[in-house]
Amino acid sequence: MDILVIGCGVSGLTTGIRLLEAGHRVTIWARDMPGSRPLPQPPAVTSEVAAAVWYPYKAYPQERVNAWGAAAYRVFRELAAQGSPEEHGVVMREVVEALPQPAPDPWWVEAVRDTFRHARAGELPAGYIDGYIFAAPVIDMSIYLGYLQRRFMDGGGTISEHTIASLDEAFAANPIVVNCTGLGAREVVGDKELYPSRGQVVRIRPRGFHRVVMDDYGPNKVAYIVPRVHDIVLGGVDDEHNESVTPDESVTAGILARCGSLVPEMANVQPDDILAVVCGLRPARSTVRLEREEVAPGRIAIHNYGHGGAGVTLSWGCADEVVALVSQS
Ligand SMILES: Cc1cc2nc3c(=O)[nH]c(=O)nc-3n(C[C@H](O)[C@H](O)[C@H](O)COP(=O)(O)OP(=O)(O)OC[C@H]3O[C@@H](n4cnc5c(N)ncnc54)[C@H](O)[C@@H]3O)c2cc1C
């Protein structure tokens, strides 16, 4: 079938690849392309800003998120074992999530069960009582989005710059449309449930540190340290309903202070160590919208947006489900 995908972030590209692999002819239309705005301008596509570590953050419902996340985990782990991270940007890292009090296993544990354990005394930063330790993929989006674009085009897909005001414009070109517009779905389908959750990260030069460390609930919340292929991403903030993509210096100072307090190796980051400060708006929603909708006779929309802080984490699982929904058409 001919399928038109709207959106060229991680959701649109991954979905496009899986649809090509299933034998369809696929075109992507997008308002913004990854990499279209060079730094220091704010990145145009949220996916460019993702840290990105595999972690089901701010995405619901748990049962579907678990299945999508587990599927994507397997794909990323296989990718990390092939070729070079210079080519695809994916590496496996040890993750330490520090917790201020004893906690049960997390709801998403099944996907990482084979490497998951609670931290032993002495493995945690000062001031923490418990912790989760597991292996997870870290996806360097500065490399990975280019890899996805190449893989999509090598598979026969086409990408063009095209902004739509509503899905009607897309249906005028093709009867099956996959909506991967992220936060753009507020305008494209008038989704009032979707809202921005602003994030800001500081990219610093590498400093021989290779573990992901995070605190979401403890004295340094929210802090995360994500060593990528050529740099380290320090975060973060989660500022709901704030639409600004301009870096805020006081937020940068807070991120550096919290990360330095969480991990001594991140203390004393000097201005010269900072490569970039970037912001992005997570497409937050009470639940990810992944469903098939018959908009009119013969006109099928498949929605795949609203992944919150986990669009990369869920990408391959969601893409597989889109392929299954297309096959019902
Ligand atoms: C600071 C930060 C850190 C994050 N860290 C992580 C992490 O560690 N792990 C993780 O899994 N996730 C992380 N995320 C979340 C992740 O970035 C998002 O969930 C994900 O990028 C959403 O991808 P998407 O492809 O759905 O949307 P987007 O990347 O926003 O792409 C949307 C696409 O749709 C296009 N579009 C929109 N409107 C229109 C229109 N009207 N017409 C045509 N095209 C349109 C856009 O131009 C773009 O191409 C983070 C986010 C932030 C901000």
Entry keywords:
329 residues, alpha/beta, Rossmann fold, nine-stranded mixed beta sheet, six-stranded mixed beta sheet, 8 helices, 15 strands, 28% helix, 28% strand, binds flavin-adenine dinucleotide
Structure explained in plain terms:
The chain contains 8 helices and 15 strands. It is an alpha/beta fold. The chain has a single domain, classed as NAD(P)-binding Rossmann-like Domain (Rossmann fold). A hairpin with a 2-residue loop joins strand 14 and strand 15. The longest helix has 20 residues, at 62-81. The model has no long low-confidence stretch (mean pLDDT 97). It binds flavin-adenine dinucleotide. Residues 6-12, 29-32, 45-47, 49-53, 55, 163-164, 180-184, 187-188, 199, 201, 235-236, 280, 282-283, 305, 307-313 line the site of flavin-adenine dinucleotide. Flavin-adenine dinucleotide binds at residues 6-12, 29-32, 45-47, 49-53, 55, 163-164, 180-184, 187-188, 199, 201, 235-236, 280, 282-283, 305, 307-313.
